[in-house]
Amino acid sequence: MSYMSGLVCVACGARYAPGQAMWCPTCGLDEGILDVEFDLPAVRRSLTRAALATRPANHWRYRELLPFGADVEPVPREIGWTPMIEAPRLAAALGIGRLRLKDDSRSASASFKDRASSVGVTLAVAAGASDIACASTGNAASSLAHCAAAAGIRANIFVSERIPDGKLAQLLAYGARVFRVRGTYDEAWRLCMRACETFGWYNRNCAVNPYLVEGKKTGGLEIAEQCADDPTEWVAASIGDGCSIAGVWKGLRQIHEAGVTDGRPRMLGVQAEGVAPIAKALRGGNYAPGADGATYADSIDCPVPRNWRKAMNAIRESDGACVTVTDDEIRRAVRETGRLTGVFAEPAAAAAVAAIATARRDGILGANASVVAVISGNGLKDIAGARSAVGEPHSITPDLDAVRRIVEKG
Ligand SMILES: *Cc1c(COP(=O)(O)O)cnc(C)c1O
């Protein structure tokens, strides 16, 4: 049995039984995203700190808060429980009291998306599916391809033309069937939806499949558990479609409601300045999807966020804030994070660090603020993007004097 108690539509509040619908039939696919609810009093009896202490170091340790029962065998096993890294030099550079990095760049396929994909593949395998599909700007795809290959099912991936080479190579290496769609991400997304219906593939698109955000929730559950004795005030995370920040917040909220941890941090969301419909709506404007600019941070280049309601709820419910950062600020955060912590973040991940600088400047964070930044993807995913941020090597002839001249310059 599972601890799920039902599904609720985020637009109209209608309720459904688990498994009854993928989205709200009244509100339709674009608006009627569902949220999974759990029997928290029952979770509370089973998910205790003492019980957690005996469980394996992966994200399946939170099985009471995951959308399947104890009879289901999760695959692949080795997802989650990524390190929480103390970052005192970066905290000082940003002008805050304490910074920890939740380093999902070390996840199996090198991004936070493994949390959702592994839940998707687990559910697909449990349902007897042979195929699973998603549309993605990159990481959801490479992550799904990894999890599907590990579990022995086929991944069908719809990517937009702008996918960075590193992510594309990763997909092909995991043996996925890759459709490179000559069109926008939104067009790739719609095509994937139709293909899932037509061919009966299991649908891993996060904003549509309500169970996948439950996988992203483990990012928040782990942050709460890893900081249980020393809670953080803020959690910074970047926003594309909005599923990640919504998932992290839900995890932080539920583990608190389950009585495992005290207090709940506030969410600091961030979008790229050129593609910021959620940040703008939270600043008092109307929600108007579409971009008036662009960003090189491909993983958050989502002009039509699928899960904007859940993302906005996460910021509002947590008494949080949402800022925007420029591409130059992101590039700077890539360099500073690498140099001052040894963590190589992809642009969308470094945006969470850039957000701290902005929030500090705007007075949202004080000089003593304590923040966890979610490092959602690895810098090796997009070499061209990284190269545009990090400068050039010293090009020299093979002689020691050439080295000396550079060393003496400091
Ligand atoms: C997907 C992704 C995000 C944003 O997550 P959403 O669910 O789209 O909001 C941030 N960073 C990285 C590295 C990602 O892959």
Please describe what this structure looks like.
This protein is an alpha/beta fold. It has helices at residues 28-31, 40-46, 49-53, 88-94, 114-126, 139-151, 165-173, 185-199, 210-226, 243-257, 277-282, 308-317, 327-341, 347-361, 383-390, 400-409, and strands at 4-9, 15-16, 34-38, 84-86, 98-103, 131-136, 154-160, 177-181, 202-203, 234-238, 266-272, 321-325, 370-375. The protein contains 16 helices and 13 strands. The longest helix has 17 residues, at 210-226. The strands form three sheets. Strands 4-5-13-10-11-12 form a six-stranded mixed β-sheet, with helices on both faces. It has a four-stranded parallel β-sheet with strand order 8-7-6-9, sandwiched between helices. Strands 2-1-3 form a three-stranded antiparallel β-sheet. The protein has a domain at 84-110 and 211-390: Rossmann fold. Helices cover 41% and strands 16% of the residues. Strand 10, helix 10 (243-257) and strand 11 form a beta-alpha-beta unit. Helix 5 (114-126) crosses helix 6 (139-151) and helix 13 crosses helix 14.
What is the name of the CATH architecture of the domain at 84-110 and 211-390?
3-Layer(aba) Sandwich
* Bound small-molecule species: pyridoxal-5'-phosphate
What is the CATH T-level topology of the domain at 84-110 and 211-390?
Rossmann fold
Oligomer: single chain
Number of helices: 16
Coarse shape: globular
Please summarize the sheet with the most strands.
6 strands, mixed
Strand order of the largest sheet: 4-5-13-10-11-12
